[in-house]
Fold:
Amino acid sequence: MSEVTVEDHSSLIQTPQQLVVVVLLAFLVPILTIVMLTQLITGGLRIDRDSAEMSESAVSERIKPVGRVAMSDEPATSSSAAASTPPSASAPAAAPAGKVDGGKVYQTVCAMCHGTGLMQSPKFGDVGAWKPRVAQGLPTLHEHAIKGIRTMPAKGGNPALSDAEVSAAVDYMVSHSK
Structure:
């Protein structure tokens, strides 16, 4: 038989004070290393707040939006003042010049949901989906479209639309779903 010798394994940490020192160093050394590296990397970076590059106009020019979305029949203006001023959501909609084109309103606002059936909306041209809604009557459908119902927001999510435009879009969808 061979003899097996068992060696006592001992830890380098013998006292509670040594344990406290090791734990503190385990937190402080990485933090100090990170701080020293950031100082080394950014040590030469000095920002002169009075320079022309840091003026309020230069900063606002650098962070301005690249473009904006406007849903309108009017052509976009090319002036920088109009491009930098966002459209107001509470601005009144332009009064329709004549008969409202429900098809155009449908294409610009309603088609996203009603063209695909998004969020259980009745699909454009789906007679079965529109039949119970048409049975409620056009005034009820107009009211639901204007005020919103279930997951459909008021005016299809475009508050700039007039009630007449929304009603025309509803009439357009209903006429193609009978």
